[in-house]
Write a structure and sequence with these properties.
Elements (H helix, E strand, L loop, with lengths): L23 H31 L16 H14 L2 H23 L5 H27 L14 H11 L1 H58 L7 H9 L4 H6 L1 H13 L5 H5 L1
């Protein structure tokens, strides 16, 4: 026989937090799709920055006279060096890494046990929303700040400004749509985090209630075990071990009722055993 089969479970313990909200599955689906798209877009941006750094740029000044076969390598080296000193390239790299980290945290936070990753994901989404708003203000509102930005030796920032001037409406709508998508994702993440937190708090309440019922049931069984012998050393040891006041047992109505029932069911416990 298994040793555990000799013991009886006092109170069934709740297995873990259970999400009962019907909104949780569609929220998880939306966040999973968004984070997959965000990870793909971040990887594409990172690859684009790497291509800009590695590929030669024809807008750079032509190198001096070189032997045939070395001009292309010299031009590529100059382009790579200029791109490494270009602040838009570093800004694009940081934005891509931030987006990739946000997507990974969001995919990990879909698990109910990783609420901290989900909260980090929501905070990063808010940061991305602020970056979108800053880009909109810089490109379309506060145009005076363009002249105060550092010089770009690779010519990436002037190229961005030229493209924005040629396709102003398209760029503006794309930035607004991306910002709204991030806002919706942040709201969905916050709602899912609230659902997970509610389930966790309900599970804590169930555990506390189960612990209270266990203590009450243990106290009642201790009453039956030590009935009539509250002053004995064994009863005092049990009462101190389980933090149960044996004097309160005998003074309570419940204890009197249990003692009377015990006396009726086992009449020999009183006289004969005491006589022995």
């Amino acid at each position: 026989m298994h040793p555990g089969a000799m013991y009886e479970t006092l109170v069934d313990q709740p297995p873990g937090p259970v999400v009962r909200s019907p909104l949780a599955p569609p929220l998880r689906l939306l966040l999973r799709a968004f984070n997959i798209l965000l990870a793909g877009a971040s990887l594409a941006l990172l690859l684009l920055v790497l291509l800009i750094i590695l590929l030669p740029r024809h807008s750079l000044p032509a190198p001096g006279p070189l032997p045939e076969g070395h001009a292309a390598s010299r031009l590529g080296l100059l382009g790579a060096q200029a791109a490494l000193r270009s602040w838009p390239a570093w800004a694009g790299t940081g934005l891509a890494l931030l987006g990739l980290t946000t997507a990974m945290a969001g995919l990990a936070g879909l698990d109910q046990d990783k609420r901290r990753s989900l909260s980090t994901h929501v905070a990063m989404l808010v940061a991305l929303v602020l970056l979108h708003a800053g880009a909109l203000i810089l490109l379309f509102v506060a145009t005076d700040w363009r002249g105060r930005l550092p010089e770009d030796p690779a010519g990436l920032w002037p190229a961005v400004l030229r493209y924005t001037a040629q396709h102003a409406t398209r760029v503006k709508y794309c930035l607004i749509a991306s910002m709204l998508a991030h806002v919706v994702a942040a709201l969905c993440g916050s709602a899912l985090l609230s659902i997970y937190q509610t389930a966790y708090e309900a599970w804590l309440d169930d555990n506390e209630e189960a612990a209270t019922r266990t203590r009450k049931l243990l106290a009642s069984r201790m009453q039956r075990m030590t009935a009539g012998g509250a002053g004995t050393p064994w009863a005092r040891h049990l009462s101190s071990k389980y933090a149960i006041d044996s004097c309160a047992w005998e003074m309570s109505e419940d204890a009197a009722r249990r003692l009377s029932l015990l006396a009726l069911s086992c009449p020999r416990l009183g006289g004969e055993e005491g006589a022995v």
